[in-house]
Amino acid sequence: MNRIKQKLQEDNPPAGRAGKILSIYFSAGYPNLNDTVKIIEDLEKNGVDLIEIGLPFSDPLADGPTIQESSTEALKNGMHTALLFEQLKDIRKTVSIPLIIMGYFNPVLQYGVEAFCAQCEKIGIDGLILPDLPLDVYKEEYEAIFKKHGLINVFLITPQTSEERIRAIDDASEGFIYMVSSASTTGAKQGFGSEQSDYFDRIAQMDLKNPQIVGFGISNAETFQQATQKAKGAIIGSAFIKHLTKNGVDTIGDFVKQIR
Questions:
Q1: Which pLDDT does position 190 carry in this prediction?
Q2: Distance between CA 199 and CA 207 in Å, rounded?
Q3: Measured on CA atoms in the order 259, 9, 178, 237, is the torsion positive or negative?
């Protein structure tokens, strides 16, 4: 079974976690080009449940300034698709939790979709998050390729996504739905307002078959708890990257302890 599905179905999570998934996003090749594997290994050692490895791209439209800057710096450091695959070639010798590559479709298309998916399968990547790959294009042109290589494609919904489209995404999904907390770009926030709470309630009441993991605006224990009251888990990106920028890669455990 795909590791993402296994993680989502865990009935007995480690004590104190209450079954809520903590996912961490970071930009591969940041702060330094060869930090990628160390960051992944340290995140798992400190109890993170799922990791989203950002594939840097020159035009990251959905990302806020923190992730944009880390992506730009990673590109300056020399990160590119083939190098990321090279860095990750032995990752399954040391890491067992689900790994997802998150990025934009252009680098995947440039590499070759079939070749990209084949490399992901070879390395042990469990899924992809490609926000700019439309649902209908995925289903018509790429779904068979993803499934051939055992990859789950994770779709995003926002407060503005219609119920019809949410149900279509739910029908096409096999892992979890990435529930964007607001219509803005990524970035840490201090808390969620009534608009987000109403949105969380509305999605929970739809009784979707796939669990939801909330992203955008999760930065600390408070926002993690708020986001996971109705959802299966939450994703932290910008706050973690800020921590790496300020404190370096040797203090990852300190960051995770602040969340739960």
A1: 56
A2: 14
A3: positive
CA proximity to 75, closest of 29, 107, 130, 12: 29
Q: Please name the residue that has the structure tokens 């990302």.
A: 63
Tell me whether residue 69 is exposed, middle or buried, using C-beta atoms within 10 angstroms of its C-beta: 0 to 12, 13 to 18, 19 or more. Answer: middle
Query: Which residues have a catalytic role annotated?
Result: 52, 63
Distances, alpha carbon 48 to alpha carbons 84, 119, 257, in Å: 21, 24, 10
State how far Cα 236 lies from the chain centre: 8
pLDDT of residue 64: 78
**Interval 51-102: pLDDT, tens:** 999 999 887 665 678 999 999 999 999 999 999 999 999 999 999 999 999 9
Q: Would you tell me how many other CB atoms lie within 10 Å of the CB of residue 248?
A: 12
Question: Which helix (H) or strand (E) is 101 found in, with range?
Answer: strand 99-102
The DSSP letter of residue 100 is E
Nearest to 146 by CA among 116, 169, 170, 111: 116
Residue type present at position 123 = I
Sign of the C-alpha dihedral computed for residues 226, 179, 64 and 104 taken in this order? positive
Burial of 238 (0-12, 13-18, 19+ CB in 10 A): buried
- C-alpha separations of 18 from 49, 227, 231 in Å: 12, 14, 12
Question: 54 φ, ψ to 5°?
Answer: -75, 125
What would the pLDDT profile of 230-250 be if each residue is shown by its tens digit? 999 999 999 999 999 999 999
